[in-house]
Design goal:
Blueprint lengths: L15 H26 L1 H25 L6 H14 L1 E6 L5 E5 L3 H12 L4 E2 L25 E9 L3 E8 L4 E9 L5 E8 L2 H49 L14 H70 L6 H32 L8 E4 H18 L3 E6 L3 E4 L1 E2 L5 E2 L8 E4 L1 H18 L3 E2 L6 E2 L1 E9 L2 E9 L5 H4 L11 H6 L6 H12 L3 E6 L2 E9 L3 H8 L1
Parallel strand pairs: 3-4, 9-16
Antiparallel strand pairs: 1-2, 1-7, 4-5, 5-6, 6-7, 8-13, 9-10, 11-12, 14-15, 16-17, 17-19, 18-19
Helix pairs in contact: 1-5, 2-3, 5-6, 6-7, 7-12, 8-9, 9-12
Length: about 575
């Protein structure tokens, strides 16, 4: 449904305080006007009704007393005095012999005279044009008489066969009276009389007073309305400023009013709305940042995939080219003698072995990175595991004239020896080092560290001896709830610009040297993937005379539960 409602332009025509003051002014002025009109048109009628009601009440008491013959008793006399004095009523009761039965009046003679005047209808009606302030007037309507009397009938309120109610004017005092006279149930006559103020005069005075008071009330009301408007609009203005700041996405403003009205509730709603919007926008920004991070991560993964393919292609290109070249040589009959053929086939087998080794490492790394490998946490002796691994690995170290040592706090530093059969032994048995980890993955980490140390170990001069020595030192260092296993080799430290990148796939500090021993640059990436899967620390430390690679394994039983939950 379409409407013609125009949108808010942003410019106020007037403030709530001005509108409230104007409305308050109209309400007060309207109330005073209503009082003025009611006083002018209805006060006289209400006043006369009230006076007549008082006379009716006195009449009922008189008629009841006359009916039960208690009108002459002193008890009723007391009751009559109470009734008459309360409403300022004069009372006189006369029997049919013109004898006074009861009366209560300040002027009994006047009451008797007014009784006879009414009974014989000697009171004339008020002449037209007569002013209540005049003392006498010769012209009058009604009964003709040389003496117009002291009273005029101003108005007849009730006229029945046994009762009349009228308002009369005393010409001498210009005082009006309401009179009720007639016959009681026992045949006696009665007259009830009470003074009636000049309603018109009093009404005019009251209206004049109302106007004066009204002006004061309007002025005071306008001031009160302005102050009240200020009090009411102050929190509204505060809420307006808060909404303006919220429009600019500033949610730090808070409503701090101390009132307990609906505006305070609205302020609390504003505060909750501000907090909700701030939280929502914060969540949206967080989600946006996460989305950007995911996009960047996706782009990085795609870049890594491209680099991975390029690196694999590059790593495989050389051995494939060698294999292809030597195979073609064999095919073309270049190798005529047995030694040449053995050499050619040896190169092919060597390169094929390197390719196979690299492919196996890449498969292992892929499984680790994509979550295909799960850690099987068991408790085992890490020292015994490393000794078992050294049984085959130490032969490679001996071929390169490397001295292998094991350092432990309990046993100190001792060399690893080999006997005539190639089996290794120690001068002192190692103390057990029980850990919670995956045994196969731990062996893989140590193999990569040790083979890396063998290929990069160099002879360095012993301090103060002048002799050079090529050493690999395997160390066990007990820490709180874990043990640090490190593999140190003498040689050149890793360049500082390469320390942070050696864990990347296919990164090689010395490409020529790595190619010479068949390295693929994947071993340390496998170490990184395994240690992150086990949620354990690992790292590298440069020394002046060599490099130390280390990793940690938990010795506390809680590590098993943590790893299994992960």
């Amino acid at each position: 449904m379409e409407t013609n409602r125009k949108p808010f332009s942003g410019k106020r025509r007037y403030s709530i305080r001005t509108e409230l003051t104007f409305v308050f002014f109209l309400l007060i002025a309207g109330a005073i006007m209503i009082i003025f009109l009611a006083n002018t048109f209805f006060l006289e009628r209400y006043y006369l009704k009230d006076k007549q009601k008082a006379l009716d009440k006195a009449y009922v008491k008189l008629n009841q007393a006359a009916a039960d013959n208690s009108i002459r008793t002193s008890k009723f006399g007391v009751e009559l005095v109470q009734i008459a004095s309360k409403d300022n009523i004069g009372v006189i009761v006369m029997d049919d012999d013109s004898k006074t039965i009861k009366y209560y009046a300040s002027d009994a003679e006047t009451m008797v005279k007014r009784m006879w005047d009414n009974m014989f209808e000697k009171t004339d009606s008020l002449p037209s044009g007569y002013s209540e302030g005049e003392a006498d007037q010769s012209e009058h309507n009604g009964n003709s008489s040389d003496d117009p009397g002291d009273y005029y009938i101003v108005k007849r309120l009730q006229d029945s066969y046994n009762q009349r109610v009228q308002i009369v004017l005393d010409r001498k005092t210009s005082t009006q009276y309401m009179e009720m006279w007639g016959m009681l149930g026992d045949g006696s006559f009665y007259l009830l009389r009470t003074a009636v103020e000049s309603i018109r005069k009093n009404s005019g005075t009251a209206n004049h007073f109302i106007i004066l008071v009204g002006i004061c009330v309007i002025l005071l009301g306008a001031l009160v309305a302005a102050l009240l408007g200020t009090r009411i609009t102050r929190p509204i203005l505060q809420l307006t400023r808060i909404s303006q700041r919220m429009k600019l996405l500033d949610f730090s403003a808070r409503y701090e009013g101390d009132d307990r009205t609906e505006i305070a509730e609205l302020g609390e709603n504003f505060n909750e709305l501000s907090s909700t919007l701030e939280k929502t926008i914060s969540e949206l920004k967080t989600a946006n940042n996460e989305l950007r991070s995911d996009i960047e991560k996706k782009e990085k993964i795609e870049q890594m995939q491209r680099e991975f393919i390029a690196n694999v292609t590059h790593e495989l290109k050389t051995p494939i080219a060698l294999i292809q070249g030597y195979a073609e040589g064999l095919q073309d009959g270049i190798a005529q003698d047995a030694d040449s053929r053995d050499f050619y086939t040896g190169v092919i087998l060597d390169e094929a072995g390197k390719m196979n080794k690299m492919v196996q490492k890449l498969l292992t790394l892929t499984h680790l990175e994509f979550g295909s490998e799960k850690a099987e946490m068991t408790r085992f002796d890490a020292a015994q595991l490393i000794l078992s691994e050294l049984s085959s690995a130490v032969l490679l170290a001996n071929e390169n004239d490397i001295h292998v040592r094991i350092t432990q706090a309990q046993t100190g530093s001792q060399d690893v020896h080999t006997d005539e059969t190639g089996r290794i032994y120690l001068d002192q048995e190692l103390s057990p080092v029980y850990v919670w980890s995956d045994e196969f993955m731990t062996e893989e980490v140590f193999q990569n560290y040790f083979s890396n140390a063998v290929h990069h170990a160099k002879s360095v001069e012993k301090q103060g001896s002048g002799q050079k020595d090529k050493v690999i030192d395997i160390r066990f260092e007990q820490k709180e709830n874990c043990v640090r296993i490190s593999v140190f080799n003498t040689g050149d430290p890793i360049p500082e610009d390469s320390v942070g990148r050696i864990w990347e796939k296919f990164y090689k500090v010395d490409k020529a040297r790595t190619r010479a021993y068949g390295g693929s640059g994947v071993g340390l990436s496998i170490v990184k993937a395994i240690m992150e899967l086990l949620h354990q620390d690992y790292g590298v430390i440069n020394y002046d005379n060599g490099v130390e690679f280390w990793f940690e394994l938990e010795t506390a039983a809680k590590s098993r539960q943590t790893a299994e939950e992960t």
